[in-house]
Design a protein that fits this description.
Helices cover 27% and strands 28% of the residues. It is an alpha/beta fold. Helix 1 runs parallel beside helix 7, helix 3 crosses helix 4 and helix 4 runs parallel beside helix 5. The chain is elongated, with a radius of gyration of 22 Å. The N and C termini lie close together (11 Å).
Length: 340
Amino acid sequence: MKSVVIIGGGVAGIETASALSDFGHNVVLVEKTDSIGGKVLKWDHLFPDLKSASELENYLDIKCREGNFAIQKNTTIAQASQSNGKWMLRTDNNRVIETDAIVVATGYEVFDASRKEEYGYNIYDNVITSVDLEERLKSGKTITTRAGYLPEKIGIIHCVGSRDEKSGNHYCSKVCCITGVKQSIELHKLLPEAEIYCFYMDLRMYGQYYEELYREAQEMHKIQFIRGRLSEVSENIDKRLLIKAEDTLSGRPLKMSVDLLVLLVGMEPGKGTKSMAGICGLETGKDGFLKTSDMHFGNNKTGKKGIFLAGSCIGPMSINDTISNARSAALEVHNYLQTK
């Protein structure tokens, strides 16, 4: 029986661990926090079918409870070295784990919207992020302004921290557009009298049924989509937000007051991803995510023998793409271990 260490206890880590244990390998899943499941635990509904995120949580919970793999929480990898075809991992509590293969599944971080000071996050009361909104939706609480009023006009801003030279992230985070569509529909269902505006650069509906959800948002929920980049947010004396943008289709400047502003924050390489790059000597791409050996034929492989990648440590992914990528990683590791 061969051994594998999975680093990261989110969707990718759990799915990879489950598949490899089904192959009959001795698997240890290492998670730096005290909980398993990753960021999905904060989400209310998933796109494009608006499935409750609790279904995914239950799926992952069953994988962990019934899977034949060990889980070590509150554990991080501090050192890694290779000798005689084996990897020796030293944890932060000075424990040494010997393994035949490693899968890095350290995921991503959410862009810190306060870095875009001109958008007013953590400055103005009624500027929130898509993550904040999702947590409010999950809690079941009424969506209100900080003062407790139902918002009559809501702005949703796409590409916050993505495709943005100023923030240093030139890439598309892939999931922001569809998240904005999903959340605008949810807001309309909760606040049918509210006017909801989405400000976008380009709408990238690349996934199956994404375009249909976008059309539903327009036709059934009357969401208004404005092609324009937000330049500045300020606060009026009544705590309403004045946003300045350019309507790039008409070429005209635009001003609008809204009661609530939602910033669709993108993905960045996680701190754990950067840490593992240094510890294991892995390459990173121009975007800072971990570099695979080949984008077409080796998307789970690295330049280091015995080290593989799974999930959004490679780059931005939706949940269904993450699960597929994790299963692919498990097969790559299994094939590798068969040759040892």
